[in-house]
Design a protein that fits this description.
Heme Oxygenase, Chain A; globular; mainly alpha; homodimer; 11 helices
């Protein structure tokens, strides 16, 4: 089989997003249109935190396979963007702390959210599969799995606009996580995309990269399916997962 | 079996250094006393580079297992200290680049050294075993394996003094790597030591931590045994490894 041209291969990767990215999931449509109950928003914040706080582990797994110091130096920023600095007063806050401010804004105890106690097993399975994939898959596939960022700025823009319009908790301050990702993600993805395009030379390598990106869209989609099933319809919350009214609400202030 | 007291356990860890740390290896004694030929110094710089440039991969392997953002934020500095920033003119140089300046000072082409082409297989086996250990061993054992840093400031001080006294290539500038580690390593090790002392509660956990530190001293010692065997006595350089006079010397200037 002959390899695709660089342009055709890039178009193929972008089509994966057009077909399968989680901006098309009904949970997101409900969230962005203001149709989520406060409890559904809380469930989303609790479960999505598990993804957020696993991302630096995923990126460290990548670094740990990376013998080229230049590539490590370029990739390391992803960890810094999410984890921030040890002392946020004198350094970067980082995406994880921004997410916990959102948690507080939607009425959750940030410590409860950070404990990951109420996270659904299905969320963990999907997210842990992603970390494992980046640790174990062929190197270029590991990079390719990050390319969902190609599709992220659209959903972040929709989300910021939709949440600001429809929910009282939403302010520029509480949505800082998404606003910030609008700046960070494009830098990351430009680097990742050109790496994948450059290094996927044979048809087999291109197929492997496309499969990795497809896998990643599955990781994102599966999280929303689990959320929908538990907290929207049929609304069957799995054993042990967070229930509205149980722990996690902020004490009244 | 009862666990050791915190003090007795710390003393046991320190005794491992007193018995087995590579400051006692004859290669280091020869190096620090000025008895190494220029070629022996070069062989050391080439092989030790492989260790240096694998350390960030080891630390990233640790981060990738680390679900606590605070611990990740504290540990991440190790990667930054070694890799430095993407643009060293506007950021940190990092230990790897400092090591390449040392390579240049001892008459090697830094690009050759950075290629790792002439590194002995025995060096790779030992160093790769360390990265793998940190990826796979129990979590506290992974931390404990970093505690050879407890013993590092003594050897760095001896080395700086010995090299400055005995070798023309040695200046504060070319030995910046070691001078810098005198500042960096104590911060790292204070954190690692209290973590290991706090988390090793049972006798079995203490034994595991002690075994991890012993393993790490083996990793360091084996590198010097290989160096000695190849470049000192009997002087049998393994197939494919760097030979004095073959590539790697800097073009005359």
């Amino acid at each position: 089989m002959t390899a695709q041209s660089r342009d055709a291969f890039e178009a193929r990767l972008r089509q994966i997003g057009a077909d399968r990215y989680h901006d098309k999931h009904p949970f997101h449509q409900q969230l962005h249109s203001g149709a989520c109950t406060p409890e559904q928003v809380q469930a989303w914040v609790i479960n999505r935190y598990y993804y957020q706080c696993s991302i630096p582990m995923k990126d460290a797994a990548f670094l740990s396979r990376c013998s080229d110091p230049d590539l490590r130096r370029a990739w390391r920023r992803r960890i810094e963007d999410h984890d921030g600095d040890p002392d946020p007063e004198n350094g970067r806050e980082g995406g994880i702390r921004r997410w916990l401010r959102l948690a507080e804004a939607v009425g959750l105890d940030p410590q409860y959210v950070a404990s990951c106690e109420g996270v659904m097993p299905a969320t963990r399975f999907a997210v842990d599969a992603y970390v494992r994939f980046v640790r174990e898959a062929p190197f270029v596939a590991a990079v390719a799995s990050s390319l969902t960022e190609l599709f992220a700025s659209g959903i972040h823009r929709q989300r910021i606009a939709g949440l600001l319009e429809h929910y009282d908790f939403a302010t520029e301050e509480t949505l800082a996580y998404f606003r910030r990702r609008l700046n960070e993600a494009p830098k990351d993805v430009a680097f990742g995309l050109s790496y994948v395009l450059d290094e996927s030379v044979t048809k087999a390598q291109q197929d492997e990269a496309a499969a990795a990106l497809t896998f990643k869209t599955d990781v994102l989609w599966a999280q929303l399916d689990a959320l929908y099933s538990a907290y929207v319809a049929p609304g069957r919350i799995p054993p042990g997962a967070w229930k509205p009214g149980d722990g996690g609400a902020r004490a009244e202030v």
